[in-house]
Amino acid sequence: MTAPASRVPDMLWYGWGVPDRQIHLPDSVTALLGQALGVHPSPPRAEPDVRLAESALPPDAAGALAAVVGAGHVRTGDDVRLLHSGGKSTIDLLRRRRDHPVLDAPDAVVLPADHAQVLAVLAACARHGVAVVPFGGGTSVVGGVEPARGRFAAVITLDLRRLDRLIAVDAESATATLQPGLKAPEAESLLADHGLTLGHYPQSFEHATIGGFAATRSSGQSSAGYGRFDDLVVALRVATPAGELCLGRAPASAAGPDLRQLFLGSEGAFGVITEVTVRVRPVPPTQLDEAWWFPDFGAGATALRRLAQADALPAIARLSDEAETAVNAALSGPAGAPPGGPAAAPAVPAGGTLAITGYEGTAEAVAARRSAATAILAGAGGMPLPEPAAAGWRAGRFAAPYLRDGLLDAGALVETLETATSWSALPALYAAVRAAVTGTLTGQGTPPLVLCHISHVYPTGASLYFTVVAAVAADPIAQWQATKRAAGDAITSHGATISHHHAVGTDHRGWMTAEVGDLGVAVLRAVKATVDPAGILNPGKLLPPEP
Amino acid sequence: MTAPASRVPDMLWYGWGVPDRQIHLPDSVTALLGQALGVHPSPPRAEPDVRLAESALPPDAAGALAAVVGAGHVRTGDDVRLLHSGGKSTIDLLRRRRDHPVLDAPDAVVLPADHAQVLAVLAACARHGVAVVPFGGGTSVVGGVEPARGRFAAVITLDLRRLDRLIAVDAESATATLQPGLKAPEAESLLADHGLTLGHYPQSFEHATIGGFAATRSSGQSSAGYGRFDDLVVALRVATPAGELCLGRAPASAAGPDLRQLFLGSEGAFGVITEVTVRVRPVPPTQLDEAWWFPDFGAGATALRRLAQADALPAIARLSDEAETAVNAALSGPAGAPPGGPAAAPAVPAGGTLAITGYEGTAEAVAARRSAATAILAGAGGMPLPEPAAAGWRAGRFAAPYLRDGLLDAGALVETLETATSWSALPALYAAVRAAVTGTLTGQGTPPLVLCHISHVYPTGASLYFTVVAAVAADPIAQWQATKRAAGDAITSHGATISHHHAVGTDHRGWMTAEVGDLGVAVLRAVKATVDPAGILNPGKLLPPEP
User: Shortest CB distance from A524 goes to which of B257, B365, B456?
Assistant: First the structure.
């Protein structure tokens, strides 16, 4: 059992990340936002003057929890509760940025030390009728860590930061067993001591946790090479109010349904993941990023599809549409150092779309894979671009959430949403979501800029990731909720999934019946009733409201 | 919707496959069996003089079923019922080979035409209290199609042979939608008309169905290149007594738990799979098999592990242990034409172990993959063998079940069992299963020959597939049951899975609590109660007996 040498700091409660990385948009960009979208600069941001509802944790419950984790690990101070008052969706941030906000917060933040304490905390909460919100990095953008109490009088947030160990490395089997509270950079640092990597780099990488990756079916920027997080999971240990589960006894099994797949994506509503055994790989000695230009989004998508179907994908394969390509080119200064965002291209021909490809592995493997991929990309009409284009993407690849804060500061509404479907259905889905978002926001008097990229590519289909920017309306929360509703309806009515990697949380639960049908929802409820008979786990997430 | 041009014939009821492919062991082999294992030749086989319990289907149930599928598709004749009296485990065959056997059989065999009829049959059976055994190819070797009636007065077998269409091909998305009653060769033939293949070739290929592959998490001989069947499934349509489920809206999703993974491996106990959408690939223009010799099983396993961990696996990668290598060498005549079995090697050096590798794809892809793999195999101490060794394996790769019939005819007990675990745990598991099998059979006065191969290879571990041959004892069914019990206990006590690709059925259900724990079993029961409230679906399979 090894703990990380240093810990990742907590994020700002009213924005993303840490203070010294905050982005202030250059005047040229704010001027452009004004011209293009009618964004009116807002007054400079100060830390909001927040108030929290008082802690309502009954004393007997508090005592029972303290008996499990120690009194010092049941935290009821406003500072700690504020840090657990929700996730990082734009709506979360808008709520916190209001004048004198009054925020929902958990009645206590409880910090268990290990699996046994998690089990005991869940048992105590079930006994005392206290809702439990499992909490990793707090990076959810779908309301997944909302401190909702459901039908209970009190709610605690179960912060897993003390479960922060690398439990075991099995180098021969290429697996590592990790505790859920490890932040991704901490896990990578511990694995690097063994020459190993998970290779899982979602945009939330700098603050997200191992447990969160598993509970939300995270997908990283190198998913084409390393697989989605759920692909990497060999075994899970889960604590539930009804006891524990140890799932995954082999690299593959025909011993009935794969129950790991019920807890991957269970978002804290079925249990608390306390150990994750994952496939690991040697730290790649070689890494090579390249940028490619395609005349249009369709041509670039065809190139990515051919790569996937030829089993010739680079580790990273992504493609911005025309709008995103143009905006990123405009955002990147003449020095080619962009403030962030999905892609940046200082030397892109006017028009067209930009793809980023990234190769990782031994020098020989990279050379072989690059050679095969290059032939396919060029054959599909791609044109390789000079190096800075790809370097710009890598430099800014975790910066988009900081850019969002800067845009919110500048008086813009900005949010993302994502989905996935089969290749043949992708063009219609793309058009439908753009139309829904554009129509709804234009109807509210705030015509948007809608950017899109393909970030995850499979032989049978791909994801679409949309970024929406508009001027804020009088009620920006209602403004976005209406937009999101239209986008979600467009997604589900086109047969696509309501989330490729953001998960369900509170924001997508209304579409779960469209996603899995009435009987699918009934199955999910039956599973929950078995592992969480009192219904204390993460109320209001994952499952649609009871009819 | 396209139906196959011709149908695969039914199998012999008391053995595997079709009459003209039956194998009669040469006298040299029977003599060897006598010398080595004390096998006494039994009298020549004649078709057993069988009797079935009479059909007990109540007339009102029969009428309700006839109203759904038409009277001609509710079959109660002994010939049809006999063909559905169970699967193809050695115990199944021993039961049928007894003198004047009296066999359990379904009270009727019902043949629905489509999804709607399956739903209606399930509803009718739930209403009338009739158990339902879904039936594809009838190739189960774990009692998965046993006509058990559970607590019901009657049981029907739901034979899905009329759901035999290729519903759709989406060439752009590289997927095809198939009905479950298609036999694998029929499905391959329909896909070949589009230049496509599933690439799924388990040993049961010639008689197994698409629905069965999904319901049992089948794994084919080319799994290293094409993936297990569950990896290939993009979407499922399932009929249950509680209604239907359509699962799978994208190549990947974070919209909660993956419910497809509850129905893959559900073995007819949760519903009837009526449509399967799978990834397909172009028929490979190039196919190349090779054989490699390794000084011992450990060295060969290390080579396969390195291939998997370097993402350099051929489409086929398998390795026989010393015993299996020697037996296959002995079985293959001087002409190099073996009667079947997992591997055959006319030109293997004495001692050591034989691996088979197979490459598939474009000529360039095969060349590149072969070059990378060859370096790893040679680097791990492997020695390439002349071509006939691999050709022998391919020629006999579906023949092992015929060889089993021949061995049973010759008076031998022969059966297989399989498992999987991590690479680091593989040597101890191998030793433990061998010891359990050898100890149990030796203790019964019938010391066995135990052969093993690795047939499915992953970065984090591999499967072990054991073949056991011994002289029959007075009660061969009890003889094998004791052996199987010892092997299963060794497998689960070593942390391995009770089945890598044979599934659970009746034979493995006793180990399901070891596999997923009490709470895992409770979750499975809750799912079943939701989709099958009356409990009519495949009684006695998958779930352990109620405590």
Answer: B257
Secondary structure element (H or E) that encloses residue B90, with its range = helix B90-97
Among the residue ranges A440-449, B80-89, B142-151, B389-398, the one predicted with the least confidence is B389-398
On whether the CB atoms of residues B468 and B327 are closer than 8 A, the answer is no
Which one of B219, B309, B364 has the shortest CB-CB distance to A252? B219
User: Tens of pLDDT along A149-180?
Assistant: 999 999 999 999 999 999 999 999 999 999 99
pLDDT > 90 fraction of chain B, expressed in percent and rounded? 89
B364: chain A residues, CB-CB within 8 Å: 372
Does residue B97 belong to the interface with chain A, where contact is any CB pair within 8 Å? no
* Contact criterion met (CB < 8 Å) for A520 and B245: yes
Report the distance separating Cα B145 and Cα B540, nearest Å. Answer: 10
- List CB contacts (< 8 A) between B523 and chain A: 245, 259, 262, 527, 530-531
Q: Are A367 and A277 in contact (CB under 8 A)?
A: no
Cβ atoms of residues A421 and A496 within 8 Å: yes
pTM of the model: 0.96
Q: How confident is the model at residue B387 (pLDDT cuts 50, 70, 90)?
A: confident
**Segment 245-264 of chain A within 8 Å of chain B by CB:** 245-247, 249-264
Alpha-carbon gap: B281 to the closest alpha carbon of chain A (Å): 8
Contact A461, A309 (CB under 8 A): no
**Contact in structure between B377 and B307 (CB atoms under 8 Å):** yes
Interface test with A, best of B175, B233, B236, B259 (most A CBs within 10 A): B259
Separation between Cα atoms, residue B245 and residue A518, nearest integer Å: 8
Alpha carbons A519 and A496: distance in angstroms, whole number? 19
What does the pLDDT read at residue B44? 63
Which pair of tokens denotes residue A310?
Answer: 């030829």
- Residue B345 pLDDT more than 60? no
Phi, psi of B70 (to 5 degrees): 90, 140
Determine the 3-state secondary structure of A19 from DSSP.
helix
Rounded to 10°, the helix B363-379/A363-379 angle is 180
How far is it, in rounded angstroms, from Cα B112 to Cα B326?
A: 48
Listing DSSP states for B262-283 in one string gives HHTT-TTSS-EEEEEEEE-EEP
Q: How far is CA A77 from CA A69, A86, A100, in A?
A: 17, 16, 19
Q: Which of residues 200-219 of B touch A (CB under 8 A)?
A: 216-219
Tell me which residue in A254, A263, A515 faces B255 most closely, judged by beta carbons: A515
Distance from CA of B175 to the nearest CA of A (A): 7
Interface of A with B in 308-367 (CB under 8 A): 309-311, 364-365
Q: What angle do CA B69, B74, B78 make, to 5 degrees?
A: 165
Could you tell me if the ipTM is greater than 0.90?
Answer: yes
List the Cα angle A432/A434/A439 in 5-degree steps: 95
Nearest to A287 by CA among A219, A356, A339: A356
Greatest Cα-to-Cα distance within chain B, rounded to the nearest angstrom: 69
SS3 annotation, B510-528: HHHHHHHHHHHHHHHHHHH
Q: Classify B261 as helix, strand or coil.
A: helix
How many Cβ atoms are within 10 Å of A2's Cβ, its own excluded? 14
Between the alpha carbon of residue A378 and those of residues A296, A307, A346, B282, the distances in Å are 14, 11, 21, 21
Cross-chain residue pair A251–B458, CB shorter than 8 Å: yes
DSSP A93-116: HHHHHSSS-EE---SEEE---SHH
Rg (CA), chain B: 23
A249 to B495: CB separation less than 8 angstroms, yes or no: yes
> Cα A489 vs. chain centroid, distance in angstroms?
21
- Please write the tens of the pLDDT for every residue from B53-90: 899 999 999 999 999 999 999 999 999 999 999 999 99
